[in-house]
Amino acid sequence: MDSHQLLERIRALPLSGTVRIMNVCGGHERSISMAGLRTALPSTIELIPGPGCPVCICPEEDIYQAIQIGLNEDVVVLAFGDMLRVPVNAPKQAIRTLEQAKAAGADIRPIASPTEAVSIARSHPEKTIVFFVAGFETTCAPVAAMLEEGIPNNLLLLMSGRLTWPAVALLLSSDTPTFDALIAPGHVATIMGAEEWRFVVDHYTMPTAVAGFTSNSLLAAIYSVLRQRLEQHPFLDNCYTQVVTSNGNERAKQLLNAAFDNIDAPWRGIGIIPQSGFELKDKFSSHNARLRFPTYADEARKKAGMMPPGCDCANVILGKIKPNDCRLYGELCIPRNPVGPCMVSDEGACRIWWASGIKNSHSAH
């Protein structure tokens, strides 16, 4: 079926009451918003962006440590472009972002892919290169492949990678989940397999579908979970069979298991989520930036590592409010002057809503 046919079928469903469908991928949220799917769907269907932005949930203490390493050590710090603009909680006159640290003289460079880190390290063997790795499984898998192949001795990794499914499990285990059905992330499922999301159906009896990034795939997934709910027969549906298999990329998963341990890890604005973090295995300890620069792990920041004052990014990430319900959205917080991380990244819900035309708290889809 094409998108028009899927929309007609969705509109014909005998829905009673509001159905809240969460997507857990910044790419999904971008496709939904840019295609105007919210305005095309019946008003009883609420599409909720979830914790699908790695930049948004990156712990403040990790960003702070990367800033301090760049300012105080004779190193080159590499990070994905979006990370350079994420602010930490600090006085306005203090250095609050990697971008500001770069302006203050630190050698901090944006990169677009992990392979660039290896290339830079090989081009500058006399320098220590610190790669600040923030991302989900799709980012950490190529980093694991790099480690398997062997990386230069002068390349250190400051790991801030996260697994996606534990965050969804946390939301589902709360007393009042904020959604009734789940659109599972296509890119993550490509690596980890659709079956990783079966727990949502088996343990929480919630309709679930894996989606791709076209309007057609997203509408197919929405139609699937709505029918599952109406028929009271939840199951795991794969609406992205072009690239997603049941078990995913076995080689990528082997590389992840060989390179990283899963540890209890903080998510900014959410807190510690058990077994949700990627950390280097002991055999790669010589490449662990935390072991090389332990003095910059500021424990005090873990207590202060929430969102900036007045910022509601945490509630946006948890699906408790819409981006434009934030008190700062479109007023004090805009893309060129972001207060919270959700307005920084192209995968952040606030930035996506702004780009799709929602300019203030009074705008509506």
Count of helical stretches: 17
By CATH, the architecture of the domain at 55-164 and 249-304 is named: 3-Layer(aba) Sandwich
What order do the SSEs take from the amino end to the carboxyl end, as H and E? HEHHEHHEHEHEHEHEHHEHEHEEHHHH
Helix % is 25-40%
From the N-terminal CA to the C-terminal CA, the straight-line distance is 25 Å
Q: Can you summarize the main beta sheet?
A: 6 strands, mixed
Corresponding CATH superfamily of the domain at 55-164 and 249-304: HypD, alpha/beta domain 2
Structural class, from helix and strand content?
alpha/beta
Mean pLDDT: 94
Find the count of extended strands (DSSP E, 2+ residues). 11
* Gyration radius, rounded: 21 Å
CATH top level of the domain at 55-164 and 249-304?
Alpha Beta
What is the molecular shape?
A: globular
CATH topology of the domain at 55-164 and 249-304: Rossmann fold
Describe this entry's structure for a reader.
The protein has a domain at 55-164 and 249-304: Rossmann fold, CATH 3.40.50.11740. Helix content is 38%, strand content 18%. The two termini are 25 Å apart. α1 (3-12) packs parallel to α12 (215-231) and α2 runs parallel beside α17. A six-stranded mixed β-sheet has the order 4-3-5-6-11-10, with helices on both faces. Strands 2-1-7-8-9 form a five-stranded parallel β-sheet. β5, α8 and β6 form a beta-alpha-beta unit. The model has no long low-confidence stretch (mean pLDDT 94). The chain has 365 residues and is an alpha/beta fold. It has 17 helices and eleven strands.
